[in-house]
Amino acid sequence: MKLWGGRFAKETDQLTDHFNSSISFDMRLYKHDIIGSIAHVDMLGQQNIITLEESQSIIEGLKALLQDIEAGKIEFNEKMEDIHMNIEALLTERIGAVAKKMHTGRSRNDQVALDVRLYTRDEIITLKALLKDLMETVLNLAKKHRDTIMPGYTHLQRAQPITFGHHLMAYFEMLKRDYHRLNFAYDHTNYCPLGSGALATTTYPLNRQAVSDALDFSGICENSIDGVSDRDFCLDLLYGLSALMMHLSRFSEEIILWSSHEFHFVELDDAYSTGSSIMPQKKNPDIAELVRGKTGRVYGNLMSLLTTMKGLPLAYNKDMQEDKERLFDSIDTLKMCLPIFTRMLATLKVCEKNMYKAASGGFTNATDAADYLVKKGLAFRDAHEVIGKLVLYCVTHETSLEDLPLDIYQSIHPIFEADVYEAIALTTCVKERQVLGGPSAKALEQHFEKATTFLTTL
């Protein structure tokens, strides 16, 4: 008979058992379920709700059970529905009827809320470590290429000369925000719902704060209804992971473009590329493509849980069983994507000459040519028009601003002098952009220093 079977006159249908069961996926919560139960039972003993001897017997049994589960000696039973009832049934087999006192003053509603919070909290710590590794890799690569000139783009059209280091540091800032979002999710996860009961606490004199302290939470969930019905902390994490995947996807898209023959800005290491079954020349950026593709499933998990939660009356509803697979899948996806993306990036070969050549074309120094005129006294709008005419001339005559003779410059406007060539040199264009946040070596060094300081605080 099921642990809740006293109310029922007959067994549930086999299809009901299968449909209702969550053990196939919530079994991964076994450790957190046992840790939470130990804290709860210890509190029950301290509060004289059960005897200290009973409390100690249950705790020792739970610790032994945890060891056996981790040693692979335990098989869970689908008929027991979920991890909580499996643990209780297994413990009862081992230590007898005293195990049934473990559930005193507790509901599966606050128990599962606790387990998911404990699990989520641990996984956020793991994800933060993986994200930090990626951020360090991005920073190291950026430092290596602080002087590697490449074209910056808007609308995927060559716009202005920058450095590869500057471009990479844009992703560092994105990842830094992702790290802050993980911290935010952790902070909102780190409250203890145990003691909320099914929804209205209990008549037993529970010490909720003692359990919260034992499990290293920041505090308790202040409202028992909210304690069992809240999954905002899951949504916070799913949004944070969706934003992180979006950033990885954008980065992947650029790596895919850059590794193409048309760009040839980078070459992927053989260890993080694949070939074609029919075309022997191919070297495909499958890792970047898979990261880009897996972004959709993480988005889907966020939308799925948002949709699940949107119409639920308070307090707990069985619909909320759907939270775990969505949460688990997103966490698993990031734990796959982050390490391999980091290694792919760390082994990337940068084709510096091709980047420079691309920056030399497409009139990326046109804005600097306009700025040259402004510094000579022209209004920017007038300077913009003058350079536009020069660019049109260059396009028509298949030349560049760098190769345009001075007399042509002066035929468009007499203010031009021989120093225009130095002003529009790519190295000058980059060097002179010393405004904070810009691509010059001076500005980048300041950014690197701040980024390094940030990483040392993590």
SSE arrangement:
Blueprint: H1 14-20, H2 23-26, H3 30-46, H4 52-70, H5 83-95, H6 108-144, E1 149-154, E2 157-163, H7 164-189, E3 191-192, H8 208-214, E4 219-220, H9 224-229, H10 232-258, E5 266-267, H11 286-309, H12 322-346, E6 349-350, H13 352-360, H14 366-375, H15 380-397, H16 406-412, H17 420-423, H18 426-431, H19 441-456
Parallel strand pairs: 3-4
Antiparallel strand pairs: 1-2, 5-6
Q: Explain this structure to me?
A:
The chain starts with 13 loop residues before the first helix and ends with a helix. It has a two-stranded antiparallel sheet with strand order 1-2. The protein has helices at residues 14-20, 23-26, 30-46, 52-70, 83-95, 108-144, 164-189, 208-214, 224-229, 232-258, 286-309, 322-346, 352-360, 366-375, 380-397, 406-412, 420-423, 426-431, 441-456; strands at 149-154, 157-163, 191-192, 219-220, 266-267, 349-350. It has 19 helices and 6 strands. Strand 1 (149-154) and strand 2 form a beta hairpin. The protein is mainly alpha-helical and 458 residues long.
Main attributes?
458 residues, 19 helices, single chain
Give unreliable regions as ranges.
Answer: none
**What's the mean pLDDT score?**
95
Helicity level = 55-70%
Structure annotation, total helices: 19
The rough form would be described as: elongated
What gyration radius follows from the Cα positions, in whole Å?
A: 31 Å
> How many angstroms does the end-to-end distance come to?
50 Å
H-E string? HHHHHHEEHEHEHHEHHEHHHHHHH
